[in-house]
Write a structure and sequence with these properties.
Layout lengths: L4 E6 L21 E3 L29 H15 L4 E6 L9 E3 L12 H12 L6 E6 L11 E4 L6 E2 L1 H6 L12 E2 H10 L4 E2 L3 E4 L15 H5 L14 E4 L4 E3 L3 H15 L3 E2 L13 E7 L3 H11 L2 H14 L12 H15 L22 H9 L8 H4 L16 H4 L15 E6 L11
Parallel strand pairs: 6-10, 7-8, 9-13
Antiparallel strand pairs: 1-15, 2-4, 3-4, 3-15, 5-6, 5-14, 11-12
Amino acid sequence: MVSAGALVAVRSSGSEHVRAATVPSNTPTGTTTMTLPPSPTSSTSPPSSSSTASITPPLLTTPPPVVLRLATRLNGTLEGTNGCLVVSDGSAGPEPLYLHQPTVPFAPASTQKLLVAATALSVLGPAFRFVTKVVAPAAPVAGRVDSLWMVGAGDALLASPEFMAYTTHMVRVAGYPWTPLAALADSLGAAGIHSVPGGIRGDNSHFEQLRWLPAWPASYRSDQQIGFLFALTLNEGVQTWTPKKSTVASDPPAFASSELARLASARGVAVGATGPDQAAPANGVVVAQVESAPLSQVVEAMLRASDNLIAELLVREIDRHVGPADGGTGSGTTAGGLAVVARRAVGFGVPMEGALMLDGSGLAPGNRATCTELLAALQLGARPGLSPVVDGSLKQPEPGRWLLASSALLSRASCGLRRVRSITPAEWSVSSNSPARSSLPSS
């Protein structure tokens, strides 16, 4: 757990899409304001076709006394806390219903993943898949290859059958789109390979070799907030596990390749001793491969469970696909990927004043974001191809019920205000760096 946090939540009007509202970025900091809704005769403008336009919701009416009561309760709840709050209802026009320090930056914690998700979907596409390959120096001859290289491509969800079985009943990762390592071992047999005297090596050359980000406290290693950052990793970096204790792999590529060798041996393939990590031959032959689930599913899993490793590897994959013209390096670096995320956010129309991104997961204590940024980031889910931004973040509430964040992304990131109840369909952005003291008020 990190000491600072944030919460973003949305209440839908019962339609299939997420309603978006414009959140101004020029509201004075340190203030609380309230906007009364228009009369029922007001009309809304049709949505613009531009790439940065918001989607205008159907006309809704909020009685002014209810809004006044909401503001009074929110003022009392926020008194003495160090955080920001934005409540937006499209029926109130372009101005939010309630603002409290909307442009003051706070530590966003895992809500940092929202912009990473939107950027990954826009750069890579919802149908993108990570492909882990096994490469031989030449085509098999009579079922034999001298050596094999397991080439990582940034798939954070590659998993052994034992790990997949172990996590079956874990609520946090329920329904996770794991990539089965067993399928890769099966493919070796299907390729007719039955002898690999030189063993299987791990290839981690897909990304930069920086294993640990300098913005992260060393305590995160012992706390197992995240494993080491490698393009080839297995079981999310976990090497051994029990209900009470797990250990993180110190060399994820070597562990992954050794596990593939184990599974291949169980299928009748004679595999020699595994050598050290090494890049595959440039002119090698792909003899087996396994694809991840589509990126849309991976992003939903990342947001639902607040998966730090997925977020960090996505940042590097973004950089591999983007060159210097769009702020990246094309070589799979964290710095390059974060530059692309920031640049794309501005292009999306997300207000980034005061923002500071030191990683993609939100683990770095020095990250900063405003409530206006967080709400605008969530609203990106209304755009074509970006729906996983919201689908992975929030549970569709029943009418009149408490709106609870169903994802660890929201509930874990919130160290302050956690729960909201909408009087009308509304959008909320909350960031609190204070200890929890109460929930947001009901009507």
